[in-house]
Design a protein that fits this description.
This protein has 351 residues and is an alpha/beta fold. It contains twelve helices and eleven strands. Strand 5, helix 4 and strand 6 form a beta-alpha-beta unit.
Length: 351
């Protein structure tokens, strides 16, 4: 898939996160100049010496404006995730931060902006595959904030700004922890993996490198000034894809199917009591079909994902297994650290 042949200057918000870091590595490899805006300590960012690193919050309009000056392209990956419990915090980061990025991009005549949205904007639809004009019925503050951020993007398109909205399925790859660390941790220890229902629902994922390709194409191609669904071309049922991962791990992990209605009710209760990191978005989508139509991205961007669900899962698990000692005992609320398992830790012990 082609990338811009001329070197350019890119601003990546949230550049120290999982997606941002992977994107920065790709841009540097391609010979581009990169500015990173992130709240993380640059001492903890391995690429800090190779980029212009600005330690700032995306909600700081002055800092965003300064970081954007001189940028040819902007990629907005900074976000508050569903695991954050404060609706006010999620909204301020995901909506107010989005507005600051768009304001600065318009002011400084940026050539293109890529915004990593999410299929969370659709909520829990019953009709599949999901297409770009499917109804938006988000569940929870995270999905709602992504819808509002998209509305801002379309408003700035009308002002003449090129903005590519990329609704990515759950993405993973080497370096991704977060909710996947819980799954990988249980598989590594050969535990029983509980399914909500029998696991025959189709569940589409996305490899991080495939997402990065779409981000670059969306910002740089004229046809990218639009909304796009992104997901793996090859995916099976949840049971099928996880079975391949079980074979890779070889630890004896196996499935236990649980009644769907009872399981969702229990997880909803744990969520409300803040005893589990899993939100309605997590357990809702895991219990039903969840896949999008990517024909529009194929046609307009010339984008074709290279990795299947199984290949993405296995690559991420291999990285996790090799690097596990590096993050043992650490927890947080981002994609680059394990999430606290809460009461699920007790469930693991008895599984």
């Amino acid at each position: 898939m082609p990338t811009p042949k001329k070197t350019a200057t890119w601003l990546v918000t949230g550049g120290a996160g999982f997606l941002g870091r992977s994107l920065v590595e790709r841009l540097l490899k391609d010979g581009h100049a990169v500015t990173v805006l992130d709240t993380a300590d640059p001492a903890a960012f391995p690429l800090a010496s190779r980029v212009s690193y600005r330690r700032a919050d995306v909600r700081d309009a002055t800092a965003v404006d300064a970081a954007t000056a001189g940028a040819d392209y902007v990629v907005h990956t900074a976000a508050a995730l569903p695991i954050h419990r404060s609706k006010k915090f999620i909204w301020s980061v995901n909506v107010d931060g989005m507005r600051n990025v768009l304001d600065a991009a318009l002011k400084h005549h940026v050539k293109g902006v890529s915004f990593t949205s999410s299929t969370a904007v659709y909520g829990l639809p019953k009709v599949h595959p999901i297409v770009e004009d499917s109804p938006m019925k988000p569940v929870g503050p995270y999905g709602e904030s992504k819808v509002a951020a998209e509305d801002l993007c379309r408003a700035y398109r009308r002002k003449g700004l090129h903005v590519s909205i990329l609704r990515a399925k759950t993405f993973l790859g080497p370096g991704r922890l977060g909710v996947f660390e819980i799954l990988f941790d249980w598989i590594r220890d050969g535990k029983r993996i509980y399914l909500i229902g029998k696991g025959h629902n189709k569940y589409q994922l996305l490899d991080v490198d495939d997402l990065i390709e779409a981000i670059i194409l969306g910002a740089t191609r004229a046809q990218g000034n639009d909304d796009f669904n992104l997901g793996a071309d090859e995916y099976g049922s949840l049971r099928e894809d996880l079975t391949a991962l079980f074979r890779e791990a070889g630890t004896g992990a196996r499935f236990v199917a649980l009644p769907k209605r009872t399981s969702i009710a229990a997880l909803w209760t744990l969520d409300k009591l803040r005893l589990s990191p899993l939100t309605k978005w997590h357990y809702g989508t895991m219990a039903t079909d969840s896949y999008v139509d990517t024909a529009k991205a194929h046609a307009q961007l010339g984008w074709r994902p290279k990795r299947s669900n199984q290949e993405a899962l296995i690559a991420a698990y291999r990285w996790y297994h090799a690097h596990r000692p590096e993050f043992a005992g650490k927890t947080g609320t981002g994609h680059t650290v394990p999430w606290s398992q809460g009461v699920l830790r007790w469930l693991k012990r008895v599984s």
